[in-house]
Amino acid sequence: MVGVTDIKFLSPENLLNLATDVVPLLIMAVGMTLVIYIGSIDLSSQSVANMATVLATVTLPVAGAASALVVMAAGLLFGAVSGIVTTRLKVPSFIATLAVGGIALSVAQYVSGQQALHMDAGQRNHAFGWMQGSTAGIPHELVLALVIVGVAWFIQNRMTAGRVLKAIGTGEPVAVASGIRVERYKILAFALSGMFAAIAGLMFSVKLSGGSPTLAEGFLLPAIVAVLVGGTPLTGGVGGVMNTLIGTMIVAVVRASMLYLNIPATGQQIFFGLVLIVAIATTIDRSKMRIVK
Amino acid sequence: MFELQNVEKRYPGVHVLKGVDFRIGDGEIVGLVGENGAGKSTLMKIIYGAVRHDAGNVLVDGVPVSFSNPRDAMKMGVGMVYQEQSLIPNLTVMENIFLGFEKPFVRFGAIKWKKMAEAAGKQLRKVKLDIDPAMITSKLTFSQRQLVELAKVLTLEERVEGKLVILLDEPTSVLSKEEIDLLFGLVRELRGRASFIFVSHRLDEIVTLSDRIYVLKDGAVVDVMNSAEADIETIQKKMVGRDVNHEYYREDKQRPYDDGHVLLELDHVTIAGRGNDVSLNLHAGEVLALVGVEGSGREPVLRTIFGMKKPEKGTISIRGIPVRSFSASESVSHGVGYVPRERKIEGIASGMNVFENMTLSQMRNYSKSGVLRIPAERELARDWIRRLSIRVASENSDCGNLSGGNQQKVVLAKWRSSGSEIILLDHPTRGLDIGAKEDVYEMIRDMSADGVGIILVADTLEEAIGLSHTIAVIKDGEIRKWFNCQPGSKPSPYDLIRYMV
After folding, report:
1. What pTM did the predictor assign?
2. Fewer CB within 10 A of the end CB, N or C, for chain A?
3. Which stretches make up the ABC transporter domain (chain B) (predicted)?
4. In this predicted complex, what is the ipTM?
C-alpha cells in the first residue's frame, strides 16, 4: 500500500535499510522461536536484551571485544535459569520467564545505576567497528544476522537437539517414552533463547553506542508477533527459524509503513497487540488445548 | 421407550458402529456386553449425547430426536452414571447434584442453600444415602460417590416428562460384594422410575441383573438374548465370535524360549504407591503375559520396568546387572523398549514423519557429534517400511495421518530397529482391525524367535493366552498365579478369571 503511494519505499536501498534496522529484533525473535517451538514462551527476552546493553557498555572498556562473550554467557545463564525453573520446579514458562525477566531488568538497573550509559567511540570502533561497516553495499550487521539465523536453522533441522525440540513440540509424552531426557533439551531451548536475546541487545547497544535498562523497550511484542505471524504456533512443533525470518520481515515492513504514515511509536504497540491476538486466535491448534486457563 | 435404529458411526479409518438396532422399554434393565473395541463406549456416547451418530435414528417414545450434547440428552430423560466419576471433588454433594441446574434455587442472583439442601436430601433418599448434602464430595467413599452420581441423574425425574433412561458404565468395578448387592437392589427398586442400560465386563452380573442382553461385536449387534435363557459361556462365545482359533494367534510359530538366559529379573519389587511385592523372570525369546482386570496393577509394573516409575523396594536386574538409576532414558540405553497403551499420546508423534519417529529412541546411532545423518535415517525407515509392509506414501509421510495399525508398526519398528532386547507391550492391538492385529501377532512371534523377551499386557484374555509362553495373573498389584502356556496345553479363560476376581 505504501509502496504504491511512494515508489521510493520499494527501492533496494530503502529495503536494505529496513532489513538492517530490524536485525536486533530478528535475532531476538529467532531465539524466541526455539522456545515457542517446544510449546513454551519466553517473556524475559526484552529484559535480557536490556541487561545485555548495559553489560556490554560496562564491560567494553575492560574486556574489549571479549565483552561480547560476557554478554552472551549472561544471556545463556538467565535463559538456563528460566529453563530450570520451568522443568524442575514445574513453573509454567510464562511465569518463570516473567520472573527471570524481572531479575534481569533489576540487574540492568543496578549495574547501570538507573541511567543511560555511553560507549567510548574509540573503544567501540576498535572492538565492534566491523559490525557497522559494509561490503558491496551490504551492511555487515545484516550478514552477521543471517549467519546467526543460519546457525539456528542448522541446529533446528540438522542436529539431534533440533529434532528433540520438534518432538517435544509435537508430542512431549512420546519423547519421554522414547527415552529422551526431555528436561535437558527444554533447558537448552530456554538457554539459547536467552543467549540470542543477549546478542540482540549487544548489537543494539553497539548500534546506538550505549546501554540503558530501557534501551530495548518495545521489542518483546514485535518479537512474539514475528514468530507467530511467521507460522510457529504457540502450541509448537511446526514452523521454525525460517518462518520467523519471514515473520520479522513482515513486522519490519508493517513498522516502516506505520512510520511512513506518521503513526506515532506509541500507537504501534496497540497495533502489534491486536495483531498478536488475531495471530494467536487464528493459528492455535485447539485440539491441543482443550481448556485454556 | 428409547430406541436406536440402524445407527452408524465412523471415525477416520474405522467403522465403529455398523447399523446398530437397540431398544429399551420402560422399566427394563438391559445389559450391554462386548470386547474392548467392540464399540460399546461409542454406542453409549451416542445414547447420552456425547457423540453424534452419522446415520440412522434415535427415537424417544417413537419421536426422532437429535442430541448435540449430553445436556440435550438429559432434557429427554437420558442420563449417564460415569465409570470415572464425574463429580467435582471440592464441591459439596448438593452443589454437585444440581451442577448446571441451580436455577430453581436462585433468588436475586444468590443461591438459597437451604432450599437446595432440602431438594438434594430428597434426591439422596431416592438412593437411600443418608449423608449431609452440605458435605464436601471428596470426603465420601467411592461407593457413596457412585450413589450421589446416581442421585444426580435421578434429578431428571422432576425436570423432564416421561420415563428416564439411565446408563451405568461399569458401576461395579471397584465395589465390594455388599456394595454391589446394595446397588443392584436399588436399581431393581428404581425400575418404576427409570429403565437402565448396564455395561459391565462381569458377565455373571449382567446375567443376574438384566432382563435382556445385547452382545456387541466389531460394531454390530450379534445377538440379543433373554437373560433367563442366557449363560455365560454362550455370551462369551458370541462376544469373541468364534471358538478361539489357534491359527489366529500364530500358535504354530510358538517356540520354546531359552530357559538359561534371563534378560530381566524383578526381585521382590514394590511398585510405588501400591505396597505390593512382584517377582518375575523374563527369558530370551519368552512372551510373558500379565493378566488381570482393569486397575489390577499391570500397567504400573510395565512403567516401573521402563523406568518411568521408581520402585520403592526390591531390585530390577537387566541381564543380571541391577538397575541403579531409574529413568526412561536409562532403560532405553539398556535395551528396553516400551509400546504404550495410548498410542496417539505416547507412541506416535503426529506432526513428525516416519523416519523421525523411528529414530526418536536411537538418535545417538544416527548422528555424529550432534549432527543427524538424515540419509541413514531415511534408509532405515525405508527398510522397515518394506519389512513390515507399512502402508505409507514414503518415509516422509506424517505419522499422524497413518491408520492405527500402521502407526503401531512404526512404534514397533522404532524399538526393533534399535535392537531392544526387552520389549514391553501395553495393549499393542488396542483399536486395531483384525488384519492389523494379525500383523502385530506375527511381529510378536518374529521378535520372540529373534530372542527378544516380551512382557505383554493384552487387550483380551484370548490374546494373552494365544500369544504367551507364560501367564502371570495379577490381582491387587500382586501376582496370584502362574500358568505355563505351551501350545496344546494352554489354560482357558475360565482358569484365569478365577484368579482375577
Report:
1. 0.77
2. C
3. 2-243, 257-501
4. 0.84
